[in-house]
Design brief:
The chain is an alpha+beta fold. About 70% of the residues lie in helices and about 10% in strands. Helix 1 packs across helix 4 and helix 2 packs across helix 3. The protein is rod-shaped. About 10% of the residues are buried.
Length: about 200
């Protein structure tokens, strides 16, 4: 073999080797590319799942927050309506005819009396709780220990109703206290009636 043939053979083997190396590199590159594509696809899928979960979580939190806001608004509206119901009840008591109002107050006074010698202090604007009403209640209580109520010359800072006082002990029978007591007892029942 002459030199030219040797060089040609070496070049041919080198070229063959180069093609083999390039082929292997290309195959390795394609395999790595395929593996990276698979990883990327898995990563994208995982990202989509996480994004969906995060979106669902955010949606869930937003819905919970919305429900909480609606509940607060509902309770506020419910409270406003109940306040209106009890305000209307207080106004209706004040607007009763003189006969019905004095009848109501006489009954309340009879129930509130403990010793019969208390002092009756009417509300600041209440002219219907007067000497005649006190006499009427005294007659119902009967002579002796239980029939000695007296109307005070003082007026109480209440909107309607009265206060019974004996010494330092006071029994508040104002319309505000009556409504407040009724509210405590009836609020659940009225709420059930109004809101089901």
């Amino acid at each position: 073999m002459d030199a030219e043939q040797v060089v040609s053979k070496i070049l041919s083997e080198a070229q063959s080797q180069a093609y083999k190396i390039i082929g292997e590199a290309k195959a390795k590159f394609e395999a790595e590319q395929a593996a990276l594509s698979e990883e990327l696809a898995a990563y994208n899928k995982e990202t989509e799942i996480l994004a969906a979960e995060a979106g669902a979580d955010k949606k869930s939190r937003m819905l919970a927050g919305g429900r909480m806001d609606l509940s607060k608004q509902y309770l506020a509206a419910k409270s406003t309506l109940l306040n209106k119901v009890f305000e209307t009840a207080a106004e209706k008591i004040k607007a009763l005819s003189d006969e019905k109002y004095t009848e109501l107050m006489a009954g309340l006074m009879e129930k509130a009396v403990e010793t019969g010698d208390e002092c009756v202090i009417a509300g600041k604007e209440d002219k219907r709780i007067n000497q005649e009403l006190v006499k009427q209640v005294n007659r119902k209580l009967g002579p002796g220990f239980k029939g000695k109520l007296e109307l005070s010359g003082k007026k109480a800072n209440i909107d309607g109703g009265f206060i019974l006082q004996r010494g330092n002990v006071k029994t508040n029978v104002s319309i505000e206290v009556l409504i407040s007591t009724a509210r405590s007892e009836l609020e659940m029942e009225i709420a059930e009636e109004l809101f089901g």
